[in-house]
Amino acid sequence: MIKKIQLSLLVIFTIVFGLSSLKAQNKDNSAKIKNVVLVHGAFVDGSGWRGVYDILTKRGYNVTIAQIPLTSLKDDNETVRRVLDKLDGPAVLVGHSWGGTVITEVSSHNNVASLVYVTAFQPDKGETTDTWYSSQPGLPEADILPPDAEGLAYYDVKKFHAGFAADLDHDLATFMAHSQKPISASSFTAVVTAADWHTKPTFGIIPTADKSINLLILRNMYRRSGTKVTEINGASHAVFISHAKEVADVIIAASK
User: Which Pfam families does the UniProt entry name for this protein (predicted)?
Assistant: First the structure.
């Protein structure tokens, strides 16, 4: 009788232990992606991601900010690919504005697991950024100046606060306007050759008070692609700075 009880206890222990191990294994298998790569857009650099970076790193993510040169789609693409090449596994690839075109071009990289478009362009193969930017009327608050003698485009300093960063304080917006990083205007007409948003989980953020990109453009792009959209009411084109927590929350969702 005692032997039967001992045998029964052994069977129960084995089952319970096996279920516990299975749960632990399933938990490990569903663990979130730990790598995040952040790509800035035109007229700014990667420092604007500081708020998002701080939130994600405190949550245990390995965050890399790609400082793209804004000299061409090819150059920006190669810069982000070098970052991805050095990672030890899959990553969430995040792009703001022009950075959306860049992450689209890079989207076929093996380490790209999911994509996040932060008020960002999302062209398809064979399209350009200008294909979408010119698809709707421009906004009066936004003003990208004609290219200078070197082919570089700047955002009008006088309109930067209202057009790019209306929900940031005046001093910060003014500093950003005077420290802006120009982009080679030819980048906007460069043809995209990859678009893995067709097959990889894709998330998008639309700030409802963006005055740099017409909201119809964003909604039309994301509707076409089936992107999972989060709208942030009252946020400007600088939503990655002014609403860092909300942006980080979408990135976290994309990592699961």
Answer: Abhydrolase_6
